[in-house]
Design brief:
Helices cover 71% and strands 0% of the residues. The chain is an all-alpha fold.
């Protein structure tokens, strides 16, 4: 008899464990790219994503999540954190606090991740959404809460900045 402790009927505990085992690698690699190799932040995003899955399985209507659902959920957590961080920085700026905290996380393995890590977060997330997630420009705009025109401009600047990093560091 299958255990149903975690879920409300959509998935058994064994199915949740199986989903975890087949998705944790791809999800962690994706989170590491988003965070430019900041492993602690990637760990946090992955944990929050799986917690969201369990909460949804416990309280929501039955559904069958997959790795794609987890990646989209992780992306939303990352974007939410970027927005919170942006709001925090704006409050600090308005309050005239000097000495902005700009710490750069250690780069992870891989030239692309290293180069992405040198870009501002807005550039990085735009490039990952467009070229890793293969979202259309209108979809990237929607995810970032920007107009299509502003997103196209952001992508042009992000590609140029990435090219500069690769040329100067490569």
């Amino acid at each position: 008899m299958a255990s149903e402790v975690v879920t409300s009927g959509a998935m058994t505990d064994e199915e949740v464990v199986a989903l975890y085992e087949r998705s944790v690698g791809p999800l962690y690699r994706y989170a590491t790219r988003l965070t430019a190799g900041d492993r602690a932040w990637a760990d946090e995003l992955v944990q929050e994503t799986y917690l969201q899955l369990v909460r949804r399985l416990r309280s929501g209507p039955p559904f069958q999540p997959d790795t794609g659902w987890l990646i989209v959920s992780c992306r939303h957590r990352f974007l939410d954190q970027l927005k919170q961080d942006r709001r925090r920085r704006e409050r600090e700026r308005r309050d005239a606090l000097s000495g902005a905290d700009a710490t750069v996380g250690e780069a992870a393995d891989g030239a692309v991740t290293d180069a992405l890590g040198q870009l501002p977060p807005d550039y990085r997330v735009a490039l990952v959404l467009r070229y890793v997630d293969e979202l259309s420009v209108p979809d990237v705009a929607r995810e970032l809460g920007r107009s299509v025109h502003a997103t196209e401009s952001l992508l042009v600047r992000a590609r140029a900045a990435l090219r500069d990093v690769v040329v100067h560091d490569g």
